[in-house]
DNA sequence: GCGTCAAACCTAGGGGCTCTAGGTTTCAAC
DNA sequence: GTTGAAACCTAGAGCCCCTAGGTTTGACGC
């Protein structure tokens, strides 16, 4: 019989594609085995178990995500960079919903140590914000504002939560404008109580 | 043998509590049966199947969510209302992660028809924004900005994605200030290209 | 060409989950 | 007390995860 010639990388790559099609939480060992035309048990020589498979998909996805963001912001600054970052973020989530969902899983320390992508993503985000001249605490708050909006909007969009007729891309662009405005005038919005 | 005296409502309520403890996607019929000290099969006289159980939990959760928001904004206006809305949103997600996850499922039309909570939530959000004097399109964009941020931040917080030492509540408050500022100056952030 | 050995793949089977079919028990109302 | 519906049960099929242990393939050295 012809064998598939699998390796851990090929299995994980196929799993990522399957996750994009079926959803990350519908990623199953048996479904993946079917797609690779192999018995379930065969996959366990490439991957420890389902949790391991999911974690590996997450590492792959986080790396691809960081690469996309890095490519998008390269050579840009200020609002240009913010818009490029935002567009790359959203398109990754929309084009690769399974991988995007995978990026949100909490990795165990062992897996986390195998990649620098999370740190790279954070560094890219902070680099983006440097143009707005915030101190460390304000910058952290701003990072959380951006991450919150980007993630929330993308997640809602992917899950079909926007029902109003208004063009979703237009709302996204408008929000990015609003966020740029907020960042530019960050100190003006501060409220003492 | 003593019987549990279950009904669909009791089953669904127990399922919601279980979801809050174990996570909405770890909600299982057999786990729920264990908790209710009943055989799996017994639950199928109260609920059609797992998908039906999940949908009913979603309807319950969306209703409770809308009630919380409504109670929070009652009698408030302007920034006060925004802050109350935001606090109610976040605390619901943090206190009831399983129910909150349930609110994000897409209901089939039949289930959707059994509740007015989604419409109520949208109405509350739009009422909140009325203070900022936006037209329909701008208001829709603003709703999406708010929903995106609220959902994304809460989701990231619940899933432990904020690792920086900065107090999470402080970041939330700061972001709410920033959003209020953005809404107040909505037209100023508009960029023509 | 032939043995060797690791990697790739397999069958068999246990345990958990969902769900159906069909039977039994409880309880309230007559 | 009988009756009928609601609540609950056992039994079992099908799918999924995973392990144990065995077989096949293919590259490499002799």
Compact summary:
Two copies of one chain form a homodimer. Helices cover about 70% and strands about 0% of the residues of chain A.
Describe this structure in words.
Two copies of one chain form a homodimer. Chain A is mainly alpha-helical and 193 residues long. Chain A has one domain (8-189): Tetracycline Repressor, domain 2. Chain A is elongated and about 65 Å long. The model of chain A has no long low-confidence stretch (mean pLDDT 95). Chain A has helices at residues 8-22, 29-36, 40-43, 50-73, 78-95, 97-103, 109-112, 117-129, 136-158, 168-184. Chains A and B meet through helix 9 and helix 10 of A and helix 9 and helix 10 of B. Chains A, B: Residues 28-47 bind DNA. Chains A, B: InterPro entries: Homeodomain-like_sf, HTH_TetR, MT1864/Rv1816-like_C, Tet_transcr_reg_TetR-rel_C_sf. Chains A, B: GO terms for molecular function: DNA binding.
Secondary structure layout plus pairing:
Two copies of one chain form a homodimer.
Chain A: H1 8-22, H2 29-36, H3 40-43, H4 50-73, H5 78-95, H6 97-103, H7 109-112, H8 117-129, H9 136-158, H10 168-184
Helix pairs in contact in A: 1-2, 1-4, 1-6, 4-5, 4-6, 4-8, 5-6, 5-9, 5-10, 9-10
Chain A binds a DNA duplex (30 and 30 nucleotides) through residues 1, 3-7, 28-31, 38-42, 44-46, 49-50.
């Amino acid at each position: 019989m012809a064998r598939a010639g699998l390796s851990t990388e090929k299995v994980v790559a196929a799993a990522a594609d399957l996750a994009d099609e079926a959803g990350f939480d519908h990623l199953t060992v048996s479904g993946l085995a079917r797609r690779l035309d192999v018995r379930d048990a065969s996959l366990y020589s490439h991957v420890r178990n389902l949790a391991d498979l999911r974690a590996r998909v997450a590492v792959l996805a986080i790396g691809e995500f960081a690469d996309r963001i890095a490519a998008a912001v390269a050579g840009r600054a200020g609002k240009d960079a913010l818009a490029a970052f935002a567009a790359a973020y959203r398109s990754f989530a929309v084009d690769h919903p399974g991988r995007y969902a995978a990026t949100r899983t909490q990795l165990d320390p062992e897996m986390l140590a195998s990649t620098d992508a999370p740190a790279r993503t954070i560094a890219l985000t902070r680099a983006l914000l440097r143009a707005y001249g915030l101190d460390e605490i304000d910058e952290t708050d701003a990072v959380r504002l951006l991450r919150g909006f980007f993630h929330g909007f993308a997640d809602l969009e992917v899950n079909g939560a926007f029902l109003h007729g208004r063009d979703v891309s237009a709302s996204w662009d408008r929000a990015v404008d609003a966020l740029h405005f907020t960042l530019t005038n960050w100190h003006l919005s501060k409220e003492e109580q």
